[in-house]
Specification:
It comes from Iocasia fonsfrigidae. The protein is α/β, with parallel strands linked by helices and 211 residues long. It has a single domain, classed as Spore Coat Polysaccharide Biosynthesis Protein SpsA, Chain A (Alpha-Beta Complex), CATH 3.90.550.10. The chain is 42% helix and 20% strand. It has nine helices and nine strands. 42% of the residues are buried.
Length: 211
């Protein structure tokens, strides 16, 4: 089954190139698609240089909108979604995400950090549903027409949608971590961004946002 990796990215010039370089060495992946979500740095240029197909949005529209645009562009039967700020990505992580789908055990897998970095491991231990690392059969999400409304709550929205009609399995992603918002943007801007993320999640969970 053809596999496309979908990466929404906003100002991730420090990490995007190394992620794509790793993905390009994995034979099971046919395409890497980066949705440049209005970045003001060199994210798009570095992604293209590393060999990804890049689609740039005219402005920062949010993670939900970026993922929706990517899904609309993909014809592969399996989509792997990855965050653009990962550190330590390797072939094992991709294999762990794909194998349960290949074996017919799941329609979507959700990856959970393990033995990567204490603070990110702990966060995903308590809230694995928020993980941005996942693989899913394209048919399970092709009818989700309003993901852009979910914003940072997009993972919760996808979980709710897929669980209604398919099987979800959680898998370990050993020694993988990511850069936290407060580290990338500074304490004040990071806290503001995290607050918006939690608000978007709240909207999806409690307002029954239709996606």
């Amino acid at each position: 089954m053809e596999v496309t990796v979908l990466i929404p990215a906003y100002n991730e010039g420090n990490t995007i190139e190394s992620i794509i370089n790793t993905l390009k060495t994995i034979k099971s992946i046919q395409e890497v698609l980066v949705i440049n979500d209005g970045s003001t740095d060199n994210t798009a240029e570095l992604a293209a240089k590393a060999g990804a197909r890049v689609i740039s949005l005219p402005k920062n529209l949010g993670k939900g909108a970026a993922l929706q645009r990517g899904i609309e562009e993909i014809s592969s039967r399996i989509i792997i979604m990855l965050d653009a700020d990962l550190i330590g990505l390797n072939k094992v992580h991709i294999t762990n995400l794909l194998e349960p789908i290949y074996r017919g055990e799941a329609d979507m897998t959700v990856g959970v950090f393990n033995h990567g970095r204490g603070i990110t491991d702990l966060a995903q231990f308590f809230s694995p549903n928020l993980s941005g690392q996942r693989a899913v059969k394209a048919e399970m999400i092709s009818d989700m027409s309003s993901l852009k409304k979910a914003g940072y709550g997009v993972e919760i929205a996808i979980n709710q949608h897929v669980k209604k009609k398919g099987r979800v399995k959680y898998v370990d992603l050993p020694d993988l971590t990511h850069i936290m918002k407060e580290e990338k943007r500074g304490i004040i801007k990071g806290v503001i961004a995290r607050s918006k993320m939690y608000w978007d999640i709240f909207r999806v969970l409690f307002n029954k946002l239709k996606v």
